[in-house]
Write a structure and sequence with these properties.
Strands 2-1-5-4-3-7-8 form a 7-stranded mixed sheet. It is built from 6 helices and 9 strands; from the N terminus they run αβββααβαβαβββαβ. It is of the alpha+beta class.
């Protein structure tokens, strides 16, 4: 009887530990260029988009110069989605900018997301398996990743391709926000490699 109780207790502890580890994995704290901290867990109860960004990358330029990314940001933040753009470029690498320059850079690119976050040590990028810019992650109100991958199905730097591309971000968000299951949970991301320190 005691052995049975101990076995049940051990299994229970393992489950609690597993859940705690899973919750920890889907949380992070990063600062924006103004020094304000943003915790992913603060947005529980809302849909969240993570966008890996590098303004020096031609694939990112394609979506910003065409206003495609900003249009997505405006559309979904207007529906109470939290849009966090994360720069995991290390100091001295493409895409990294000192904080004092970022206000003008974001204004120039007409950034319309919730926040631009700095992940210069790459910890959060590696936590979510970010390999390219852009790379998109969609997180549900319970804090679970429901999509991770490319912004669309056309891996090119040509703005003219956008109109004929299938945008995975809007496709997934429109479905899940209407109460349906995500039509896909992963696609192979494309773009420039994330400029980690190592």
């Amino acid at each position: 009887m005691i052995l049975k109780y101990l076995a049940t207790f051990t299994i229970g502890l393992a489950m609690i530990f597993s859940i705690a580890m899973a919750s920890e994995k889907e949380d992070f704290t990063l600062k924006d260029h103004k020094g304000n901290s943003h915790n992913l867990s603060d947005f529980r109860g809302k849909w969240v988009v993570l966008e890996w960004i590098n303004f020096g990358c031609p694939f990112v330029k394609k979506h910003y110069d065409s206003d495609n990314m900003q249009s997505l940001q405006k559309k979904y933040t207007g529906k109470d989605v939290v849009w966090l753009s994360i720069c995991s470029s290390a100091p001295g690498k493409q895409g990294y900018f000192e904080n004092h320059r970022l206000t003008d850079i974001l204004k120039k690119h007409k950034f319309a997301g919730t926040a631009y976050l700095i992940d210069s040590d790459g910890k959060v990028g590696k936590q979510f398996g970010a390999k390219t810019t852009p790379q998109m992650v969609i997180i549900n109100p319970e804090g679970e990743v429901v999509y991770n991958g490319a912004i669309d199905d056309t891996p090119s730097t040509d703005q003219d391709d956008i109109k004929d591309s299938k945008n995975y971000v809007s496709h997934v968000l429109d479905e899940v926000m209407s109460g349906k299951k995500a039509p896909l949970d992963y696609t192979k991301p494309y773009g420039c490699s994330v400029k980690y320190s190592d």
